[in-house]
Specification:
The chain has a single domain, classed as Cytochrome p450. The protein is 49% helix and 9% strand. It contains 17 helices and eleven strands. It is globular. The relative contact order is 0.18.
């Protein structure tokens, strides 16, 4: 592919109409003709081939912190612009952007506490899903995104954290605000919303941590303050940053996973029929959705040493963006990759990334999607799109793929 025809970073986001409507037309061309290339505007290498992407995200020596990227890595450096000179790095960003030893110091105990909550939390997820479905019982038509897909993940992560139910509306707004931290193309209004939301979350989490120290409850706030009291070397600032990141991760991506799965099932009636005939395949339905239409487009790494990927030399501190979406449709790994097939015998998809930075919320997202999708179609077996001819209304947030709305009829 001639260099002048290679897409720039904007053309690999939903801000570009072609990519928004048909991302795999772009990604297929890249993967077959130029699977590794340097995009000068962003100052980063872009990878689309499964083998290259998996090797890169699984490489435990790769860096994640954008501060370690070369000056030319404009995209990465934009993600680091909130860093405060002189402050410990772990007190300015979450584990999403940290390297070891801080990454392991914070992630490992947080993950153990979170996974223990998830392991005993299925009944709570079922209760939250059923409550959402009860509210829709007498609605002939509704927007599945706003009425079901959005509130469920935020209610679940809020319950795990120990958030007051009365504050959920505020949390939804704050979550939408802080997610703009991962949008390098945000405008002034989005930046203002992000900063306002960060401040609100900081204040609320400060109050909650103080309350749980005095009166522990059965929640993640209490788990972490108890670990601190037992000697865990994590500061309150680090806790606030990473619990906020959990809130964001529990909102947007799981919302999009559920919404994308429901849309795929409604537009592929043969696949939906398989699920309705055998509800036990719900795990396979969720995994095929993650492969076929994942909520996250990319992740990134920074070369910690001189390496070669696909015959292309990459120098220390150069930035690498990997297309999780492109890798998950690589025909070298998946037969007939553009077919949504819930009976597919799965090779490992890369929707959650990999290596030390594999998505910490993956077990929770899977459980929420399994419960939410199963119970939705059990309650509303005749669920259908209000207008099957209406094109999908994809959101415009770069590097994420989810629906603005999904209008359905339940009867």
């Amino acid at each position: 592919m001639p260099s002048e025809q290679l897409p720039n970073i904007f053309e690999l986001t939903p801000l570009d109409p072609k990519f928004r409507e048909a991302p795999h037309q772009v990604l297929d061309d890249l993967r077959s003709q130029c699977p590794v290339y340097r995009e000068p505007a962003a100052g980063t290498f872009i990878l689309t081939r499964y083998a290259d992407v998996r090797a890169t995200v699984s490489d435990l020596e790769m860096w994640r912190d954008p501060l370690r990227a070369e000056a030319a890595a404009v995209f990465q450096r934009r993600l680091a612009e909130t860093a405060v000179t002189g402050e410990p790095r772990a007190e300015t960003t979450s584990i999403l952007m940290l390297d070891d030893p801080d990454h392991a110091r914070i992630r490992q105990p947080l993950a153990r506490a979170l996974y223990a909550r998830v392991a005993k939390g299925r009944a709570n997820v079922e209760r939250i899903v059923d409550s959402a479905l009860d509210r829709l019982e007498n609605e002939p038509e509704f927007d599945l995104m706003s009425e079901f897909c959005v509130p469920i993940p935020i209610d679940v992560i809020a319950a795990i954290l120990g958030v007051d139910h009365e504050r959920l509306g505020e949390f939804r707004d704050w979550s939408e605000g802080v997610i703009q931290a991962v949008n390098p193309f945000r405008d002034a209004a989005q930046t203002e919303h992000m900063e306002r939301s960060r401040a609100a979350l900081t204040d609320y989490f400060t109050q909650m941590l103080a309350l749980r120290r005095k009166a522990p409850q059965d929640d993640l706030f209490s788990d972490m303050t108890r670990l601190q009291a037992e000697g865990l070397p994590i500061s309150d600032t680090e806790l606030r940053i990473n619990l906020s990141a959990l809130l964001v991760g529990g909102n947007l991506t799981t919302t999009d996973l559920i919404g994308n799965a429901v849309r795929l099932l409604l537009t592929h009636p043969d696949e939906l029929a398989k699920l309705q005939a055998d509800p036990g395949i719900i795990n396979a339905v969720v995994e095929e959705t993650l492969r076929y239409d994942p909520p996250v487009d990319i992740t990134s790494r920074i070369a910690s040493r001189d390496i070669e990927v696909g015959g292309c030399p990459i120098k220390t501190s150069q930035s690498i963006l990997v297309s999780l979406r492109g890798a998950n449709r690589d025909p070298e790994m998946f037969s007939d990759p553009h077919r949504f097939d819930v009976s597919r015998k799965h090779h490992p998809h890369l929707a959650f990334g990999g290596g030390a930075h594999i998505c910490i919320g993956a077990p929770l997202a899977r459980m929420e999607a399994q419960v939410g999708i199963s119970r939705l179609f059990n309650r509303f077996p005749n669920l259908r799109l209000v207008d099957p001819e209406e094109p999908p209304a994809w959101r415009m947030l770069p590097f994420f793929r989810g629906l603005q709305h999904l209008k359905v009829s339940a009867h």
